[in-house]
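Help needed: design a sequence for this.
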């Protein structure tokens, strides 16, 4: 690819996102609120009464924290009086001179910074990849994150900074792990990024692991009361809305079968059977994939930028998927895995892994558009908007079918990510040394 086209491909997703942000926010700031709301509905998003609602809650938390108000159970400074379900560490940095009055400026800065940070990802290497990555950037998940100005975008920016440091000197890599710790201190789930330490050599690995454990214990010791107090407020909901997680499929089947049959026991048995069947099929598929491809070698043939972004994205998404439910905007981390999936898909020597990576890469943009696609299908078939939480899945076969497809795609993607994670770990220096020692001892 010529240098100019290479540069354009690198910045094209960011430019597309910034153009969309300019248009959408232009409607709101210009007072055309009905068109703004209609456009969000078209994107599969239920409009709130004003943009940047999530960062407003975080800034309001600072307003109250500076007054000495305990906001974990209820935040009187928040317009919705929402409990603060993020990390209490956020109140430790309330000295930053921002508050709810700065909502629009902070929201625009956060959305712009997030979109600009996408240009730091490995550039697309083909026109198809560029188009699909632009489609992912313009997806429902990304628009939802920007419209709510959710702090997940701040986490994404920190991850991009962390990835740039991981390719540098030991001091820079140690700073990268500190950034991962900071991200976890803000929203808990990024603590899983400390697992990236496993890529270090033994002489760095053990001291870094010990330091990370001590840091986590110290963090919990300081904030234990607020953490335990706020855990019940972490977002959860019906499995039919825009949230993703491993429990969706099981509990969705329970609700649908119970609605049809009226029997809770039959619904539970049917849901368990369907979930176990899905898991067995996925395990069989991933075992076949592993046996038909040298996945660790293929992963470590990737460009380091693609490999690190893929590793970070896999860790974050697996952690979010299997730890409960996550609101749809957390799917922005799918943007991290796309460069690595496309690169792995171009490696013909990877065998079945290349085919699986190509399937995953092409499935990610539709998955990120899933709520809009479900909205359009429901509107086309029924002629009216779906109800909040998409509870029409209980009554409408077409909604149930589309929901099932969405959940199965999530499970297929996560099963592939688990296999990729095993491949990463199998290629680390510490694993190689450990396996060689075990093999040597077994032979003797």
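Sure. Designed sequence:
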């Amino acid at each position: 690819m010529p240098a100019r086209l290479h540069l354009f491909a690198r910045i094209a997703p960011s430019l597309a996102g910034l153009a969309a942000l300019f248009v959408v926010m232009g409607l709101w700031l210009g007072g055309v609120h009905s068109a703004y709301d209609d456009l969000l509905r078209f994107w599969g998003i239920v409009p709130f009464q004003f943009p940047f609602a999530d960062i407003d809650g975080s800034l309001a938390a600072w307003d109250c924290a500076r007054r000495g108000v305990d906001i974990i159970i209820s935040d009187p400074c928040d317009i919705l009086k929402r409990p603060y379900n993020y990390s209490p560490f956020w109140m430790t940095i309330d000295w930053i001179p921002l508050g709810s009055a700065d909502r629009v400026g902070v929201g625009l800065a956060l959305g712009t910074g997030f979109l600009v940070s996408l240009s730091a990802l490995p550039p697309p290497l083909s026109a198809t990849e560029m188009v699909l990555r632009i489609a992912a950037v313009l997806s429902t998940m990304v628009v939802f994150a920007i419209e709510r100005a959710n702090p997940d975008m701040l986490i994404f920016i920190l991850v991009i900074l962390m990835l740039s440091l991981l390719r540098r000197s030991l001091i820079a890599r140690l700073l990268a792990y500190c950034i991962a710790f900071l991200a976890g201190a803000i929203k808990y789930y990024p603590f899983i990024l400390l697992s990236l330490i496993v890529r270090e050599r033994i002489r760095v690995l053990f001291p870094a692991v010990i330091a990370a454990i001590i840091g986590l214990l110290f963090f919990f010791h300081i904030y234990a009361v607020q953490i335990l107090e706020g855990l019940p407020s972490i977002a959860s909901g019906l499995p039919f809305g825009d949230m993703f997680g491993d429990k969706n499929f099981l509990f969705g089947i329970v609700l649908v079968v119970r609605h049809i049959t009226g029997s809770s026991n039959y619904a539970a048995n049917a849901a368990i059977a369907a979930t176990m069947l899905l898991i067995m099929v996925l395990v069989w598929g991933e075992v076949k994939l592993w046996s038909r491809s040298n996945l660790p070698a293929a992963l470590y043939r990737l460009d380091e930028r693609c490999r690190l972004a893929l590793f970070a994205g896999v860790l974050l998404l697996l952690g979010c998927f299997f730890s409960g439910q996550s609101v749809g905007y957390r799917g922005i981390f799918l943007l991290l895995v796309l460069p690595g999936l496309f690169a792995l898909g171009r490696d013909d020597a990877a065998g079945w892994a290349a085919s699986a990576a190509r399937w995953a890469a092409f499935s990610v943009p539709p998955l990120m558009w899933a709520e809009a696609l479900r909205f359009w299908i429901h509107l086309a078939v029924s002629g009216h908007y779906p109800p909040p939480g998409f509870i029409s899945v209980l009554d409408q076969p077409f909604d149930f079918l589309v929901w099932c497809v969405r959940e199965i795609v999530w499970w297929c993607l996560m099963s592939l990510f688990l296999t990729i994670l095993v491949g990463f770990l199998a290629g680390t220096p510490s694993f190689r040394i450990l396996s060689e020692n075990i093999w040597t001892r077994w032979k003797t």
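The chain has a mean pLDDT of 89.
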